[in-house]
Amino acid sequence: MSFSGALSAAAREVVADILGSDASDLGHAQNVIVALDSSASLQPRIAEGAVRAVLDVIAAVAERLGTGCEIIGTLAGTGTVLTRLPGVTALTLVDTLLDAASHQQPTTGFRIATRDVMPYAPLSNVGRTPATRTYLVTDTVPSNVAEFTASAGSPHDTQHLVVLTSQSAWSLLRPPAVPCTVVDIQPGPLSPAEHLLHAPGALRDLIVSLLSRGPAEVAAESAGPRTGRRAAR
Predict the structure, then answer these.
(1) Which of 45, 51, 121, 198 is deepest in the core (most CB within 10 A)?
(2) Which residues does residue 39 pair with via DSSP β-bridges, in sequence order?
(3) Which residue has the higher pLDDT, 179 or 153?
(4) Could you give phi then psi for residue 159, rounded to 5 degrees?
(5) Which domains does the chain carry?
(6) Could you give the C-alpha distances from 143 to 113, 149, 222, in angstroms and in order?
(7) CA-CA distance, 88 to 64, in Å (whole number)?
(8) Can you tell which superkingdom this protein's organism belongs to (predicted)?
(9) What's the rounded Cα separation, in Å, for the pair 71 and 134?
């Protein structure tokens, strides 16, 4: 098994441990959008494998959260939906995103397009509208991050930035008002997938951060009527 395959398998185990392993339990079910930054600055992180490693983990999270719902992949900044399938596999999601990125002319600078992250009407789930969780994978904060913050369709939706950068670089930025996961995986003797597999606590810490919720979602769940949906914690 490749390190990528081993990372996907390990990530599924951690997600199941955190959220429960019964795939028929839709208590956490959400539509999931995974938007990959298509700007030039992210290309070196794609080439070194860091983006694939992070996408492998996000896909494992999406598989579990999206049980019975939709998982959508898109290149951020293009508004192009690449995959829109109920129950799409992690391999399909990651490979489709990276293949599209390899054929996309990289852009200079990065502004998130509202159409990239607006919740899509579900193809499945007739008769109910689950929350939508959006992961934007990038290497910096978009210049118009306020649009990303405001694009949630309901208070239960979650917009989440996944930023591949160093902690020192991140400390110089003003954190946006959305959940953020900073992935500080620098080039070294281990590949990014190996680092997440073998660095103590690295994989679990990443997944716990990816499952975190924003203040608006927490407040909405506390104030609103109980629906039986357990939020990811």
Answers:
(1) 51
(2) 107
(3) 179
(4) -105, 130
(5) 3-18+35-222 (3.40.50)
(6) 11, 12, 32
(7) 11
(8) Bacteria
(9) 10
List the one residue out of 39, 210, 49 whose CA is nearest residue 113. 39
Q: pTM for this structure?
A: 0.81
Contact 61, 207 (CB under 8 A): yes
- Angle of CA points 36, 174, 114, to nearest 5°: 40
Distance CA 213, CA 227 (A): 18
Q: What is the DSSP letter of 107?
A: B
Between CA 155 and CA 211 the distance in angstroms is: 16
Reference 34, options 72, 90, 63, 86; nearest CA is 72
Joined together, the tokens standing for residue 45 give 């992180």
Q: What is the pLDDT of residues 75-96, one digit of tens each?
A: 876 666 666 665 556 678 888 8
Phi, psi of 73 (to 5 degrees): -115, 140
128-146, pLDDT tens digit by residue?
457 788 898 998 887 777 7
- Give me the residue label for tokens 């927490």: 218
Token pair listed for 97:
């995103």
